[in-house]
Every structure is written in C-alpha cells, then in structure tokens.
Amino acid sequence: MQILLRKIRETESPFSIEENGVRCFGKFWRSGKHRAEIEGKIEGELPLSCDRCGEEYVEHVEEPFHVEIVDRPLKVDESLDVIECLDGIVDFDAICKSEIASIQSEYHLCPGCRDKDEFEIEF
Ligand SMILES: [Zn+2]
C-alpha cells in the first residue's frame, strides 16, 4: 500500500496489512505540511532467532510502533523514528517490513534458554 503524503488527510485513517500471518495495523494522519504520522501495531507469529543458541523459533508478538514521515530532507537532530521520503510516497509495506525487521533484530531468547536463565538466577 502506497499513499502520497500530500493526499493524507488530517483526520485519522485506518490501515491494515497482513503478510505471512503477521498483521500490521493502526492509523495514520497528516500532522504538518510536510509531515505525516503512523501509529500502529505489529501482531502475529513472528519467526525469531535465539541470541544465545541460534535456534529459530516462532513467537507471538504484539509490538506497538509510532513513526513520522517527512517529504523533505531530515534535520540532524531528528529522531530515528522519523522516516524521510523525498519522493512524497508513503510506502506502508516498506514501513511495516522495517518495523518487523527491527523487532527481529532485538535481543531474543528462545523458550529453552529463557528457562535456563531463570534457573541460573534462582541458584
Ligand atoms: Zn536458545
């Protein structure tokens, strides 16, 4: 799903994208002449890899996110949650994919290693 930033209205509109059983949904609106915001949530069974043993596993994830999109060059002091789209096209699919990728790149332990962790803390 792609929408021109200048066509995004100031009133909130809903969106929902689903890919491989993972849903990305929420709302978006325009918050300035060159600025739009997306508030959404990633929800679904996400393939993750354990940072301790390297095991691949699938876990149910519910992760909210909030990004701003601007169609002008970013200022140096702008936060990491601001996405630059100089062609003025807000690409929801790409934004959802990058949100999913950032969840996957966080530190994860598989259920087995998590159990071991608790064991070590107790003793
Ligand atoms: Zn593990």
Automatic annotation (TrEMBL):
Annotated protein name in UniProt: DUF177 domain-containing protein
Organism placement in taxonomy: Bacteria, Pseudomonadati, Campylobacterota, Epsilonproteobacteria, Campylobacterales
